[in-house]
Amino acid sequence: MLTGKQKRYLRSEAHHLTPIFQVGKGGVNDNLIKQISEALEVRELIKVSVLQNCEQDKDEVAELLSKGAKAELVQVIGSTIVLYKESVNQKKISLP
């Protein structure tokens, strides 16, 4: 689990990122979770945007993605979800 200080740090790091995944009408599926897991291994911190045509609630999507990818949910702001997972091989972010 992340502390408040670590979440604040990650939010500031994520501020300049653009979402690299979009969750739309299909919602969350295994393929999306697999791709997000792979992206997290490379980048550690990513943004996912939830489109208006998504039938699931954004908080539900955030929960499914963080559980499925075994990642930490940093924040849900508007329709954007910020996820963090420490990389095994390519560690870039050192948490305070």
Give the helices and strands, then pairings:
Elements: H1 4-14, E1 21-23, H2 30-43, E2 45-50, H3 58-68, E3 72-77, E4 80-84
Parallel strand pairs: 1-2
Antiparallel strand pairs: 2-4, 3-4
What does this structure look like?
The protein is an alpha+beta fold and 96 residues long. The protein has three helices and four strands. β1 (21-23), α2 (30-43) and β2 (45-50) form a beta-alpha-beta unit. It has a single domain (4-84), classed as Translation Initiation Factor IF3, CATH 3.30.110. The protein is globular.
Reading off the top of the CATH hierarchy, the class is best stated as Alpha Beta
- The helical percent reads 25-40%
How many structural domains can be distinguished in the coordinates? 1
What's the name of the CATH homologous superfamily?
A: YhbY-like
**Segments where pLDDT lies below 50 for 5+ residues?**
none
How would you classify the helix and strand content by structural class? alpha+beta
What can be said about the biggest beta sheet? Answer: 4 strands, mixed
Q: Keywords for this structure?
A:
96 residues; four-stranded mixed sheet; 38% helix; Translation Initiation Factor IF3
Please outline what is shown here.
InterPro entries: RNA-binding_CRM, RNA-binding_domain, RNA-binding_YhbY, YhbY-like_sf. With 96 residues, the chain is of the alpha+beta class. It has three helices and four strands; from the N terminus they run αβαβαββ.
